[in-house]
Amino acid sequence: MADYHILLLGPPGAGKGTQAKRLCETYDLDHVSTGDALRANKDMETEYGTPRSFMEAGELVPDEVVNEVLEAALTDADGYVLDGYPRNLDQVEFLDDATELDYVFFLDVDRDVLVERLTGRRVDPETGDNYHVEFDMPDDEEIRERLVQRDDDEEDVVRDRLEVYEENTEPVIEHYRETGELVEIDGEGTPDDVFERLSDAVEGDD
Ligand code: AP5
């Protein structure tokens, strides 16, 4: 199978993590998520403070810190799905120097749907799997009981994250639209519906 380099863009809650997991399983790729990598190193001391202090406020972690995290993750990956990066135009430049992309997908989802998805998200702290109180709860009672809400999924932080996205990351989407690389995918409907659209876009191109 080809070692695809797939970039998955979209606002918070668009389903990047959900779809990245499926793409990785189907095409045998590594999931490179700057959000997951930063969550795993939340209390790392840097000259700017800890990642936690930015993430819990819904702000971007400074580029210097995230770029190092990204570089380490890309070094270990052949084929990958990248999710959570780039989030501003300086990060686009850094990524251009670090790797070449085969696909740039943008998951398009309405703002009201994003808020509903994020505030209802629950995470299994043991596996990192995401669930949703309304759309996707696990059958296993033991898993249901240990689910937690991410600190940055409280409604006020969600709104701040959406503002940070509009200000910093929408120009990134526009950049890839201008270069002609952006493939827009309808991110609404069930996770199965969205995955079918993504895999059609990958396979239709082979
Ligand atoms: P990060 O972890 O990257 O968060 P995000 O981009 O805000 O995205 P999310 O993980 O919240 O959403 P998602 O699109 O993955 O949706 P999901 O699939 O979970 O970043 C967190 C923080 O880290 C940032 O705020 C920042 O501080 C820092 N950071 C990370 N990268 C950085 C960078 N490059 N530079 C600077 N700082 C950085 O789905 C959401 C919910 O919806 C789930 O409950 C899921 O079950 C449900 N769902 C998904 N799809 C569907 C569907 N089709 N129908 C119904 N429900 C669905």
UniProtKB/TrEMBL annotation:
Start and end residues of each stretch annotated as Disordered: 186-206
Record bears the keyword Transferase: yes
Keywords associated with the record: ATP-binding, Cytoplasm, Kinase, Nucleotide biosynthesis, Nucleotide-binding, Transferase
Pathway: Purine metabolism; AMP biosynthesis via salvage pathway; AMP from ADP: step 1/1
InterPro entries the record matches: Adenyl_kin_sub, Adenylat/UMP-CMP_kin, Adenylat_kinase_CS, P-loop_NTPase
Binding sites annotated in the UniProt record for ATP: G13, A14, G15, K16, G17, T18, R121, G189
PROSITE patterns found in the cross-reference section: ADENYLATE_KINASE (PS00113)
Listed GO CC annotations: cytoplasm
Main location: cytoplasm
EC number(s) reported in the record: 2.7.4.3
Subunit field text: Monomer.
Comment, domains: Consists of three domains, a large central CORE domain and two small peripheral domains, NMPbind and LID, which undergo movements during catalysis. The LID domain closes over the site of phosphoryl transfer upon ATP binding. Assembling and dissambling the active center during each catalytic cycle provides an effective means to prevent ATP hydrolysis.
Family: Belongs to the adenylate kinase family.
Chain's role: Catalyzes the reversible transfer of the terminal phosphate group between ATP and AMP. Plays an important role in cellular energy homeostasis and in adenine nucleotide metabolism.
Protein known as: Adenylate kinase
Organism from which the protein derives: Halolamina litorea
